[in-house]
Design brief:
Elements lengths: L1 E6 L5 E7 L4 E5 L6 H11 L2 E6 L11 H8 L2 E5 L9 E3 L4 E4 L2 E7 L8 E7 L8 E5 L2 E2 L2 E2 L8 H16 L7 E4 L17 E2 H7 L7 H10 L8 H10 L1
Parallel strand pairs: 3-4, 4-5, 5-6, 10-13
Antiparallel strand pairs: 1-2, 2-3, 7-8, 8-9, 9-10, 11-12, 13-14
């Protein structure tokens, strides 16, 4: 298995991973302008990117996912709830994507947006148990995603709580966490500058994860950062493709 994390614009974190032996790979949360990096990385590793996935319709940057998929002939994938104006490969909850010896399971985790997903990954040559999870804008290192982008802060904050406690925090403590952003992003408050963590460490030290549901909703809606600059324009562009 190979794995690369790419820090990029707006404190975003993008990913390329897959099975070198079988030559299959997946690109996640590609930022516009970075498409060439993925093409070059795939060429150097001798792999084919078969799936390009956005963990949700982004509001803080222009996505390069659809453009990359079109350039290389890959599937561009979003959760089936994504309200975009173009055709895409629809992902469903608990769907498993096989990349040679690597398995990626789609977890629908609404809250930041209605279409938010996380991706749970196993290297089956080593173990069928999950090794890491790409958490998009649902769980960050030291923080969680903002709930206000859909204009329903209380309702969406409750969804984030349920997604975290029903889908993410019941994973084994040693599962690694790779989020969609690091410190400096407008997509959450109090995000750490460290670009990875583990489920166990976040359960112990992420202040948002020790609260009951009511306290979580109150805390998350009381500390909402300013909306990303040009958010409406970025969302419209990402919806239009």
């Amino acid at each position: 298995m190979f794995f690369s994390q790419l820090p990029t614009k707006e404190a975003s974190l993008s990913y390329l991973f897959g099975c070198g032996g079988k030559g299959k790979a997946m690109a996640v949360d590609v930022v516009a302008g970075d498409e060439g990096w993925y093409i070059e990385q795939a060429k150097e590793r001798g792999v084919t990117i078969t799936h390009v996935i956005d963990t949700h319709v982004h509001a803080d940057h222009y996505s390069g996912g659809k453009a990359l998929a079109e350039r290389i002939g890959a599937k561009y994938c979003l959760h089936e709830n994504a309200g975009v104006k173009f055709d895409f490969e629809k992902l469903t909850d608990n769907q498993v994507i096989e990349l040679g010896n690597v398995s990626a399971t789609i977890l629908h985790t609404p809250g930041h947006t209605h279409d938010s997903i996380c991706i749970l990954v196993s290297d089956n040559r080593r173990s069928n148990e999950p090794w890491f999870v790409l958490t998009g804008d649902t769980l960050f290192v030291g923080a969680v995603g903002r709930p206000d982008l859909a204009g329903q802060e209380k309702e969406m904050a409750g969804m984030i709580y349920d997604s975290l406690h029903e889908r993410i925090l019941n994973l084994p403590n040693d599962v690694e966490v790779y989020p969609g952003h690091q410190a400096g992003s407008a997509c959450g408050a109090g995000i750490s500058g460290k670009p990875s963590s583990t489920i166990g460490f976040e359960k112990r030290f992420n202040p948002m994860l020790s609260m009951d549901r009511d306290a979580f909703v109150d805390a998350l809606t009381a500390e909402i950062p300013p909306r990303p600059a040009q958010m409406e324009r970025m969302v419209a562009a990402n919806i239009a493709g």
